[in-house]
Amino acid sequence: MLNLTKKQFWIRALCVAILVVGCFLFARASVFLRQTPEKPTRFGVTYSTIYASYLGLDVMKTYRDLIDDLGVRAVRIPVYWSDLEREKGQFDWNQLDQLVKYSEEHQVKLTLALGRKVPRWPECFIPNWAEKLSQDDQQKAVLDMLGAVVRRYKNSPAIERWQLENEPFLPFGVCQQIREKDLQEEIGFVRALDTRPIQMTASGEMQPWGTTAQLSDVFGISVYRMTWNTVFGYFTYPLSPLFYRSRMAPLDGRGKQTIVSELQAEPWFPEDYKNQSASYWYSKFTAEDLAENVRFTKETSISEAYFWGVEWWAYLKEHGEDRLWNKAKEFFLMK
Q1: Taken in order 332, 310, 293, 252, is the CA torsion positive or negative?
Q2: Is the pLDDT of residue 16 over 80?
């Protein structure tokens, strides 16, 4: 047996104690993270007017169907700058006014996603006239647009939150990288106009959360379980609900509300949807897949989750395939 000095003995004893306590705390944390959440998850949808149009849907009829038939009561609506302000200083409010008014009449809570980078490919929606501006002048134009939208709707009882940009630090889409100082300027600008919470978003799988979460009042993450790439084809992320819960735990500890802003509810399209039949695409994401994603999300203990792909459900329903639509209805009608 080695002869230990008194100092060496106490150092080793301290190390053993730290190891034992660390293992105990890890075990307790694992049990906590694996517990079934007690609170129900509120489900909503992201509704993209440009995607609905791309699929050949009547934008307002489809929105009314979401509210009246599915029972949706929480919606994130991307505001597409390229449609809203096609000419500098000339805003077309017609469609957005209709969406907000219908939401007010049916007690629907809205998150308006604003900025140059908002949901749906190609991610950036900058008017042609603004594309020609310098980065600093374009930022001024963004602030003008933000001010116009927030001032117009800040008295609406339907507006629950403002989202600024979408996954601003994720290099995805055709966008020029948004500068952090510009994002902070946008946040400060909107806070000065209205007191509603500001939502920021990040990829749930592909990037750090720290900076984006810190800037937000409500922090939204994406949850995509099956994607596609040219190497593997369709690929399922080997992640468990515990992965998301463990990443959310430090934010919960700081009182930060975390939600799922994009819950995959449609197939990943490696080609134009028109190249294949509706039945083919349904086979790539079924009602059973939707139910499994809901189960998975509930096990993360998340308080809110917004489905991504509601326009696709409507498209399938119009083409004789209503199983996704009907399965989704079950989750919105749950009490």
Answers
A1: negative
A2: no
